[in-house]
Amino acid sequence: MAHVTGLSVLTAYGHGPDALWQGLVSGKPATSPVxxxxxxxxxxxxxxxxxxxxxxYGELERLVGEACEQAKLSPADRAATPLVLALxxxxxxxALAAELAGACGLREVLTVHTAACAASNTAVAExxxxxxxxxxxxxxxxxxxxxxxxxxxAFDSAGILxxxxxxxxxxxxxxGPVLGDGAAAVVLEEPTGTAPxxxxxxxxxxxxxxxxxxxxxxxxRGPASxxxxxxxxxxxxxxxxxxxxxxxxxxxxxxxxxxxAIVSALSPHGARVPVSxxxxxxxxxxxxxxxxxxxxxxxxxxxxxxxxxANHLGPDEDCPLDLVLAPGRAPQSRYALxxxxxxxxxxxxxxxxxx
Length: 355
Hints:
This protein is an alpha/beta fold. The protein has ten helices and 14 strands. The strands form two sheets. Strands 1, 2, 5, 6, 7, 8, 9, 10, 11, 12, 13 and 14 form a twelve-stranded mixed beta sheet that branches.
């Protein structure tokens, strides 16, 4: 168990939790035509992006600093605190990550998680595990992914992106995700009894169903296993979950498999737990997804309103879930699940308790 005592976030809605929250409650996707690079030859032409071309490591340094200040970490505290990262792998990633830790005054980089869409949740799970089972008192977790030409081209050439620029999770007529800029940092600390945290990481579960390199098992075995493990680790039963922020990227097979996982892992309550995927609003932030969506969950419970599952056209019999389709719905309890999955069957579930 670990408290989230500092939280900073950047999305296409702007900088900071307030900008993200205002974007979520507007119900309007942060999507726009891509001008950062040429998309003329692509099927898709939209993404949820910030103006210009943000510097990934520069933004991470700023966000880590903000999270540490919010958590009231002194220079000595930072010097004793490790960094866990979620980033796309590249030839210079290790060296740049070490530079980032030094620039932020942190002790060292423990791990750089590169498991694509599940990277951030896995990084948070690792940090919470370290705090609960080793001498580590705290850890900083950060991750970022900004839409670039190569990643956009890879997703587009695979036919994954929504060609109309609209992401419709769990909806009839869904045709894929819209990529999004995202970066976030959190400070996780052992419970101290000080000011109320943003959230508490109560449980987590990792799984790798290894069904296919890019197709999920139709029964959602991987996500179901991750959710079951997170519940067991937290000592929480499925009927106590007040909200589930789903991975759902609006791809037909992945959404159906995840819906099956939710229904089975939370049985007999799975079809009654409020669910939404906010990727329809802030875009799919790849390696940063879990951290951005942790911020979404914390904000939703702080404001007492669940974010909508936007752009919904109608029900799909393969997704028999209680989707949040109208604004103003309150959480059913103080517990939330955040679920992220990636190619190869890797998936991580975080169970969050709210103050």
